[in-house]
Write a structure and sequence with these properties.
Shape: elongated
CATH class of the largest domain: Alpha Beta
CATH superfamily of the largest domain: Fe-S cluster assembly (FSCA)
Bound molecules: zinc ion
CATH architecture of the largest domain: 2-Layer Sandwich
Largest sheet: 4 strands, mixed
Distance between the termini: 58 Å
Strand content: 15-25%
Radius of gyration: 20 Å
Strand order of the largest sheet: 4-7-6-5
Order of helices and strands: HEEHEHEEEE
Number of helices: 3
CATH topology of the largest domain: GMP Synthetase, Chain A, domain 3
Structural class: alpha/beta
Helix content: 10-25%
């Protein structure tokens, strides 16, 4: 007995309706970021896509927060565990570097969670990838956490001074360009005296 797949049924790809994809999205939405466990890799914008490849294999696309991010191996492992636990194999995990991850991809909900966790979310938007949704060239972005305009550190530019995540004061002072990770700078609140990490926009 042969079972012929109808070709007409595939005329209109209904990606969201594929139950395996729906399950995979919901499973992966709960995978936390290894460095900031209060937010998920989806909320941070690290999880870019979950799709079925032509050979029927589940493809999970992730973009590291910066090149050489040491947490990426951990994230891939966590994704593999989550998919294995949900019996969603076979799958492959693809790391895509272009367009490069930007703090603009952090969801509003995640920004609130970061603040509640004691990390000042990135202020403003850098908009570097607004026009880059269709990468025409595979650009290998190098690490981009160089401070800009080091000569004019007195005037900190366009409202770049982060508000204290604990008391909301904008009387904050940068103590170090790097905080607990390279993505963050160490600040101190001049009002409540609390030191805090600031997730640098890039
Ligand atoms: Zn404060």
């Amino acid at each position: 007995m042969t079972h012929t797949a109808s070709t007409t049924a595939a005329a209109k790809p209904a990606r969201a309706a594929d139950p395996a994809l729906v399950r995979a999205w919901s499973v992966l939405e709960s995978v936390p970021d290894p460095e900031i466990p209060v937010v998920s890799i989806r909320e941070l914008g690290i999880l870019r896509d979950v799709r079925k490849s032509v050979d029927g294999v589940l493809e999970v696309v992730i973009t590291p927060t910066y090149s050489g991010c040491p947490a990426m191996a951990q994230i891939a492992e966590d994704i593999a565990h989550a998919l294995d636990d949900a019996d969603l194999g076979p799958y492959r995990i693809e790391t895509v570097l272009a367009p490069a991850w930007t703090t603009d991809w952090i969801s509003e909900a995640a920004r609130e969670k970061l603040r509640a966790y004691g990390i000042a979310p990135p202020s403003g938007r850098c908009g570097v990838n607004d026009a880059a949704s269709q990468p025409s060239v595979a650009v290998e972005h190098t690490i981009r956490f160089a401070p800009r305009a080091s000569n004019s550190s007195a005037s900190n530019g366009s409202g770049a001074t982060p508000a204290c995540p604990r008391c909301g004061s904008v009387h904050t002072q940068r103590l170090a360009q790097f905080g607990s990770t390279a993505c963050k700078a160490l600040y101190r609140c001049l009002d409540c005296r609390e030191p805090f990490d600031y997730f640098k926009p890039y």
